[in-house]
Amino acid sequence: MQQFFEYSEEVKQAMMEKRPLLALESTLITHGLPFPKNLETALAVEKIARENSVTPATIAIMNGKIRIGLTHAELESLVEDKHVMKASTRDIPYLLSQKLNAGTTVASTLFCADFAGIKVFATGGIGGVHRGQDQDISADLITLAKTPMAVVCAGAKAILDVPKTLEFLETHGVPVIGYRTETFPAFYTAETDYKLFAHVDNVTSLANLLKIHWQLGMSSGVLIANPIPSPDEIPADIIEPAISSALKLAEKKNVHGKEITPFLLSEIAAVTQGKSLHANINLIINNVRLGAMLALKINAF
Q1: pTM of the predicted structure, to 2 decimals
Q2: Whether the Cβ atoms of residue 222 and residue 175 lie closer than 8 Å to each other
Q3: What confidence tens digit (pLDDT) does each residue in 126-150 have?
Q4: Domain limits of the chain?
Q5: Which residues are known binding-site members for Mn(2+)?
Q6: For the domain bounded by 2-300, which CATH number is listed?
């Protein structure tokens, strides 16, 4: 399987020296944010990881290889590629065989990072169960249930059915740990009515929990819910009407499958006059900061 992977020089050096790594997805660059915010954010989060003594490992599929770690030029290449695809786990064999380029979702990033031996992954929000479509369940949840990694997020994407997403995670044995919160955040909104069983208040406690999870041989991932910083959040009474409007438009235009999430996020950004985009970027930065601190602490074990 190693023949399908290529590692950046920075990542290879970190692995040789046993320094901490933080996995980052690339659909943020290819499908999640508009230009030039996508490239700016990708570079900003990598910088934050390095400032915390952690090597960023942005993952993507390029020219028939799974790339673990990207150079500045490769990040720019992904941004400029008008035909770049979106890769979930099921798509990887096809994309490799056809030597295509793709951004990796939460699911495929988890799959690739786990093979590379990376233990911590920071993202914006995970996929989940779609509203009104109980059978439309993101592969993010399936992969999270069977990949023993720590995933830092700001909750599930706000366009999803949060209670059913949490039910799925519970059924499949995925611990959901609140970081300085007792409720599950809703991406743009820090506080919700969804109470969490477990929560911790510092990185050391979080790292110790993860150490025990792995020592017990648990096969699932651990989802760490890190709320959006309060200055950046959008109150539920503002964001919910924007989401409802976007969902109705998607139904009217028959948008579905892989296209639904980028479509909805774009529409919500338009309705909120860019506030949701600002929130999205800042919550990603917040998650990467926590992910880097966690990776550093775990590496010291």
Answers
A1: 0.95
A2: yes
A3: 999 988 776 789 999 999 999 999 9
A4: 2-300
A5: 136
A6: 3.40.1790.10
